Amino acid sequence: MSDSALIEAARDFNRFYTNFLGVLNRAYLDTPFTLTDARVLFEIGSHDGIGAVTLARDLQLDPAYLSRILKRFRAEALIEAKPDPSDLRSQIISVTDQGRAQFQDLGRRSSAQIAERFEGLALGEPHSIVSAMTTIRTLLDPNAASAPAIIRAHRPGDIGWIVQSQAKAYTDEYGWDMRFEGLVADVAGKFLNNFDPQLEYCWIAERNGINVGSVLIANGGDGVAKLRLLYVDKAARGLGLGKTLVDECIRFASAKKYRQISLWTNDILHAARSIYVKTGFRLISEEKHCMFGPQENCQTWVLDL
Amino acid sequence: MSDSALIEAARDFNRFYTNFLGVLNRAYLDTPFTLTDARVLFEIGSHDGIGAVTLARDLQLDPAYLSRILKRFRAEALIEAKPDPSDLRSQIISVTDQGRAQFQDLGRRSSAQIAERFEGLALGEPHSIVSAMTTIRTLLDPNAASAPAIIRAHRPGDIGWIVQSQAKAYTDEYGWDMRFEGLVADVAGKFLNNFDPQLEYCWIAERNGINVGSVLIANGGDGVAKLRLLYVDKAARGLGLGKTLVDECIRFASAKKYRQISLWTNDILHAARSIYVKTGFRLISEEKHCMFGPQENCQTWVLDL
DNA sequence: ATAATTTAGTTGACTCAGTCAACTGAATTA
DNA sequence: TAATTCAGTTGACTGAGTCAACTAAATTAT
Prior knowledge:
2 copies of one chain form a homodimer. By secondary structure, chain A is of the alpha+beta class. Helix content of chain A is 50%, strand content 23%.
């Protein structure tokens, strides 16, 4: 999966959507408002009591320009502005009844344009469009509240995801080669092929329907649980997800009466290492190797239960 | 979700995306081009020989305004325009080398902005965004021609993708269980671990930066090439991609002097089966099994080279 | 407590992106 | 052959948006 091809596709969409929005915004053609006017009025209407600075920041407008627009709106009695008692420099802006009427009219026009576009579509298509829009927005909007991650058992495809994400991450971040993906695929395949639901488990952390982390416990025999394939995606690091996953493993291993958890890692994986330390694992052996290209120290850690 | 709720959600997305595009278009801030300039230059660059009327229609620009922009571009030697011999009123516009350089620079800036946005996202997220964009575009743009798929060698992560996509597809479509994912992971892992670049290869079909198909050739010894893990994603079926992939395998196996290609499949996979028939494979054995849950007939096919 | 700096918002002065109407000359239709 | 349409250009304009300089309140530094 090529990043640059993804970017090209995104650019292509942006060109298309620039045009598309251009067409939609003709809704305002026979009103006395420009697109910017409409955006401002809309923003005030839906955030009553907003200040000019916030408004300018949210809509990415020049303060001077915004000031003039607000002045005009005030002159036309679409909005009212009174000084904020807690900070006399700034003002509290709200729409008048007349302004609200205009704002609703603009809304109706805009809705009508979209309704027209949706008109010719098949039954489920508008729904598909809107859920695709939601996907994009959730992922691109930094202000969209980031959903909490949920942790669940693995489902079909998840093991493949583990292979893919680890291979991609460790080749990108540490320059490991193809052999690493081979190893992960092997470990993952063996886990599935010998899967014992009584004594083994695979946890997947998921956010907005997208996998962001994993770990699994495999039976190593002799009362030893092997903790394997701990991984947290770049986008979800720093949230304590790794620790949560390891805690999950420890709880499971205890409940299943394992006497020890053991794991194999590389010293370069600092974040993982610090989780192991925090959860009480101890390093019992270390060895140089070049299994994946660059020289690393592989380490074995254990936790007695 | 009711119609009006859908429309509201679409409007909300449009407001968000208007802002978002505004931010992206800052890429042009420190160039001598406006957004409109960039759009025009881009359109000419990618449709060499386009006429001014088409250009104005595609970009929804006023002909007078466009005329002035083109005049300026001509003065700056970014484009050339010669009269269309079949209609002396209209002109054939094309970019000069200098114009192409500018156009590519603008492209780089725009790509960089998007890359920056994609930077902090999780592995699958840019992919989700782009496929959501494709959904929207396909449904809203009646002229959208789906991009052609390209076929390339595998890269890190692709083997994991193969495991994931096949596991997901076959559990969804045929109700196969986890053992299938285990088998695929195993085959894929072995392929990577014993990979012989001289005699083995893995092809990935990609569209809009999204993987949509795969196949691989592994050395089975004795002059026999094993064709494995042929797969075409639901979204890209019916385009002949499967056949293209198999043809690629046959060409490769011939060039590498294999004497035979053999493969293992299940009779329920009708599309694959018809490709094998078409490309000259013959069925040599068939056997009932319940390896993945439902009862299937597994089949071995061979093609002598 | 006072001075220096920052912040919210406004105003003057400007420019250039974009619009509208009227035109030229070639192509098409009546 | 005349009337109409079409591709593209030019004149004349306007108003959306920008930049710098300002006022006055609030905050921070001394």
